[in-house]
Write a structure and sequence with these properties.
Length: 159
């Protein structure tokens, strides 16, 4: 097997791992990866505006709002107008949302992050430059994405 074929197989394995994790997440929790990320961010940040939430998760405000609409429809999140500044609306997890979040598996990238951080600095840099080169070779370096290992529509939510 030629080296370029081995690289392409490795890329396909990564894509497949992400796909399988996304399907498992959806089956076990009924949530998409981005929905879970927003919920975790709300829990982490506490009283948070949509703007702060979108900035923290690297999602556009429109995308975050669409996802929050779905989460609110399923009573996992509620939006509350600020008492101090009526112009601001804060997202809060409901009790049902906290329970759902507690049952959800860890994000796929968490395992990667743990292993990556155990590598020597030079090896981290080598991997980073290699993956960036692959991204460039696939004309993907200008595609705007969040550092989340999930695939599929970020607004999809199984009913």
């Amino acid at each position: 097997m030629e080296k370029h074929e081995e690289v392409l197989i490795s890329i396909r394995q990564i894509i497949r791992a992400i796909d399988l994790h996304s399907k498992r997440l959806s089956k076990e929790t009924g949530l998409t990866g981005p929905q879970l990320i927003l919920m975790r961010s709300i829990r982490e940040l506490g009283e948070v505006t949509i703007r702060e939430l979108s900035k923290h998760t690297n999602m556009s405000q429109a995308t975050a709002t669409t996802i929050l609409d779905r989460l609110e429809k399923h009573e996992l999140v509620k939006r509350v107008r600020s008492e101090k500044d009526k112009r601001k609306v804060h997202a809060h997890l409901t009790e049902k949302g906290m329970e759902k979040l507690g049952q959800a598996p860890m994000p796929l990238q968490q395992n990667f992050i743990n292993k990556f951080q155990q590598l020597e600095e030079w090896e981290q840099s080598l991997l980073l430059s290699s993956v960036q080169r692959i991204s460039s070779m696939m004309n993907a370096e200008d595609i705007d994405v969040a550092p989340v290992l999930e695939i599929g529509s970020i607004t999809y939510h199984p009913e």
